[in-house]
From TrEMBL, chains A, B:
<keyword id="KW-0698">rRNA processing</keyword>
<feature type="domain" description="Ribosomal RNA small subunit methyltransferase E methyltransferase">
    <location>
        <begin position="72"/>
        <end position="226"/>
    </location>
</feature>
<protein>
    <recommendedName>
        <fullName>Ribosomal RNA small subunit methyltransferase E</fullName>
        <ecNumber>2.1.1.193</ecNumber>
    </recommendedName>
</protein>
<dbReference type="InterPro" id="IPR015947">
    <property type="entry name" value="PUA-like_sf"/>
</dbReference>
<keyword id="KW-0489">Methyltransferase</keyword>
<comment type="similarity">
    <text>Belongs to the RNA methyltransferase RsmE family.</text>
</comment>
<dbReference type="InterPro" id="IPR006700">
    <property type="entry name" value="RsmE"/>
</dbReference>
<keyword id="KW-0963">Cytoplasm</keyword>
<dbReference type="GO" id="GO:0070475">
    <property type="term" value="P:rRNA base methylation"/>
</dbReference>
<comment type="function">
    <text>Specifically methylates the N3 position of the uracil ring of uridine 1498 (m3U1498) in 16S rRNA. Acts on the fully assembled 30S ribosomal subunit.</text>
</comment>
<dbReference type="Pfam" id="PF04452">
    <property type="entry name" value="Methyltrans_RNA"/>
</dbReference>
<dbReference type="InterPro" id="IPR046886">
    <property type="entry name" value="RsmE_MTase_dom"/>
</dbReference>
<keyword id="KW-0949">S-adenosyl-L-methionine</keyword>
<dbReference type="Pfam" id="PF20260">
    <property type="entry name" value="PUA_4"/>
</dbReference>
<feature type="domain" description="Ribosomal RNA small subunit methyltransferase E PUA-like">
    <location>
        <begin position="18"/>
        <end position="62"/>
    </location>
</feature>
<dbReference type="InterPro" id="IPR029028">
    <property type="entry name" value="Alpha/beta_knot_MTases"/>
</dbReference>
<keyword id="KW-0808">Transferase</keyword>
Length: 231, 231
């Protein structure tokens, strides 16, 4: 199913420049044709094209449908990788599985201190359309690990730490209906001080399993687990 | 930890051309230095360089260590995607999580009929080194779906099929210590005839969850689940 994105629905009832071009020039849709839209806030819209303008395609809403709410708020916070492709990939896959909020932080072993949110937003919107989701995950600007830890409001807080002796597995700690945040460290992992700081603020040290995972793979494992818990 | 790959260990005690160059020219290792190797068959080797030749670096084995066996054989069979990057990505991530065998098949809605195994083998070897694994997953040449179905020897056989009414979730069907194969269809999914054929051969229709996943994401979810079951 082809979905169009208009974040200002229902107030604005036309597509933006790129979406208008795609709809009218590429897909050759005409006035009177039906289209499906998402607002990024959790609602699907069915609409009819009223003006096949390839710069500003106008439509009128026929019907709406709310996406079912997820059982809890799913939040991951990651130290971004040096190679930004790996983060873009993660953002796409996390959106497919289902995620509510993605944060980035700088920590002692961080390899990257800058993130271009615009590019990630595009990946997210494309993944939402692909996987037929109406609610756009929140993508936060990069912040210090300390701020992320101090500001976390979730009921269940976890820090994934590579320690093959630790048998406290995230899969056994996540609870349905409990808002959760999971911190995923950089390739050099968290320092002991960072782990201690997070523990003081109520984070629990968890293992993602017996394999040594790259940052983005660990983050995806965490996202997959949060989704499994609620099904 | 830097790992070198020599599939003919312990018989051959030198690195191949690429690995020799990397070891001697890039890492500037010398005779007498210790290196770590894997044979792709499940054994780690510690060795000492005896001849720092950058075309054929020779070494002698000091000690060996067997990698712990996984509880069961983990096999996924996938309809390869049009964009081969997505399959390369999957092969890398599946190796990180842990997988024993990856097969590819042609089915009615397949978008790609050819797979270059050589490139995938390189991805797998690189991922093994990265995630410190000694056993190389088997990567099979592409085959017909019919042959894959008929030849499957695993005790537990699953076909992942997009059907949001189906509440038979893979996560509840996998059993520890039971060799498993999971079929993952192309973007257009399996046809009803293909599902029926697989069911006749003992495959069980399962759901991976409530999200609409791309082929490679579905495959990775299945791989992650197989690993979770045993932990």
């Amino acid at each position: 199913m082809q979905l169009f994105y208009q974040p200002h629905l229902p107030e604005i009832q036309h597509l933006d420049l790129d979406e208008s071009k795609h709809c009218i020039k590429v897909l050759r849709m005409k006035s009177g044709d039906e289209i499906n839209l998402i607002d990024g806030k959790g609602t699907f819209y069915k609409a009819k094209i009223t003006n096949e303008n390839h710069k500003q395609c106008e439509f009128e809403i026929i019907s709406t449908e709310k996406e079912a709410d997820f059982n809890f708020h799913r939040h991951i916070a990651i130290a971004p990788t040096k190679n930004i492709d790996r983060i873009e990939w993660l953002v796409e896959k996390a959106t497919e599985f289902g995620i509510d909020e993605i944060s980035f932080f700088q920590s002692f072993h961080s390899e990257r201190k800058v993130i271009k949110i615009d590019r990630l937003e595009k990946k997210v919107i494309s993944a939402m359309k692909q996987s037929i989701k109406a609610k756009k995950p929140i993508i936060n600007e990069i912040d210090s690990l300390q701020n992320i830890i101090s500001n976390a409001k979730e009921a269940n807080k976890f820090i994934a730490y590579v320690d093959f002796q630790n048998t406290t597995y995230l899969k056994n700690e996540l609870k349905n209906n409990r808002d959760s945040i999971i911190l995923i460290g950089p390739e050099g992992d968290f320092t002991e001080e960072e782990v201690e700081l997070s523990e003081k603020k109520g984070f629990k040290k968890v293992s993602l399993g017996k394999s040594r995972l790259r940052t983005e793979t660990a983050a995806l494992a965490a996202v997959h687990l949060m989704n499994l818990i609620a099904e």
